[in-house]
Amino acid sequence: MNLKPISYILRIGHRPERDQRVTTHVGLSSRALGASGMYLAADDQKVSDSIEDVAHRFGGTYFCENNVKWKSCIKQFQKDGGKVVHLTMYGLRLQDAIADIRKEEKILVVVGAEKVPGDMYELADYNVAVANQPHSEISALALFLDHLYEGKELELDFPEAEIEVLPTKIGKTTIKHTEYDKD
Ligand code: SAM
């Protein structure tokens, strides 16, 4: 299944000494909920590798690019025809903006960690709030992607997985696929 618009994440403000867990979860949550990859605007190869390791084992083509320059990433994305959605508690209401965003071909969803630079609000094509209340980049991103894809992201397949989880009423069931299984 192909979800539209294609979405990518740009993580800004990551501090390696305190944001590793949250940034990893930004990557894993966005992967599970339909995004295609994440650009990390900080040098933290460990976080990038751990996201890609999970992506590799559980299937699909999600990537994490370490150490991008956030402004160049945004400008290049817009030059290539994409639109930038900045998630911020100060933005327009998700429920008012989402129909227009759904019409775009590809979007870059920007989430912060520490205080977001002022020019981010000007560079964004859309500043969007998931409720105009402070909370977390993980919850904002999860709700945003679910509203964007209207629940279809829950039907996604993750091809070429080494580990497949089978839905189970009680307990845990997984299948381990070998290279041979994948062909
Ligand atoms: N204190 C920071 C500031 O003033 O810019 C924000 C910190 S917040 C923990 C980290 C990120 O979560 C924000 O940059 C934003 O991307 C996201 N976020 C938090 N609340 C949000 C909301 N209500 N709607 C959309 N995004 C939100």
What report would you give on this structure?
The protein is of the alpha/beta class and 183 residues long. The chain has helices at 20-32, 45-58, 70-79, 94-102, 119-123, 137-149, 179-182, and strands at residues 6-11, 37-40, 63-65, 83-93, 106-111, 126-129, 163-166, 173-176. β1, α1 (20-32) and β2 (37-40) form a beta-alpha-beta unit. α4 crosses α6 (137-149). The radius of gyration is 17 Å and the shape is globular. The structure holds S-adenosylmethionine. S-adenosylmethionine binds at residues 87-89, 111-113, 115-116, 129-131, 133-137, 140. S-adenosylmethionine is lined by residues 87-89, 111-113, 115-116, 129-131, 133-137, 140.
